[in-house]
Amino acid sequence: MKILKYILIFGFLLLTGFQPAQDYETISWNANSRLSWDDFKGKTPLNSRAAAITASGITYRFSTSGTKDDMEVDFKIDTYFYPTKSWYQPELIDDVILGHEQLHFDISELYARKMEARLANESFTHGNVKAKVRSIYKEILKEVDDFQNQYDDETNFSRDREQQAIWNEKIRNALKK
């Protein structure tokens, strides 16, 4: 059985029925800020074999203006880390694992940007905005989940230090674009 090393929390109301994201402590993704172990405030589950869990996710808001024939849609896409849903086991962690967890957060940001780009290139009409946005969001959630799994598989949850370094560079370069 595969041990999941991360949890992605996306669209609390839309997909999971939790309280709105603003009711949870959040840390917004910022290129100039890195996570520290002090940011991981969740309770470690008993008998967990994972060293750490990163809860991060993408949220969106949009508004429309104009007429049926001349519609403008404005989007706000955010990437958050959820401290109270993220945890670690002190006896199992090191700086490499922290970097691995940071990259999960960075991957969420990368896919938030992909969502923003898709939305910016989409044509909307009066009746299809909500459905199209939701459809693109669901596609992004599937893609980021697959990518996060690929990341964990290829790095063996940070144990393969060479692959971890390759992924660090890959995501760093992707975020520079």
Descriptive key words:
4 helices, elongated, 42% helix, alpha+beta, 177 residues, disordered N terminus, single chain, 5 strands, five-stranded mixed beta sheet
Number of domains: 1
Percent strand:
15-25%
Low-pLDDT regions: 1-21
The outline comes out as elongated
Helix and strand pattern? EHEEEEHHH
**From the alpha-carbon coordinates, what is the Rg to the nearest angstrom?**
17 Å
Largest sheet: 5 strands, mixed
Structural class: alpha+beta
Notes on the protein architecture:
The chain is of the alpha+beta class and 177 residues long. The chain has one domain (6-176). Helices cover 42% and strands 19% of the residues. It is built from four helices and five strands. It has helices at residues 12-16, 95-120, 129-155, 161-176, and strands spanning 6-8, 27-28, 52-66, 71-81, 87-88. Strands 1, 2, 3, 4 and 5 form a five-stranded mixed sheet that branches. Strand 3 (52-66) and strand 4 form a beta hairpin. It starts with 5 loop residues before the first strand and ends with a helix. Residues 1-21 have low confidence and may be disordered.
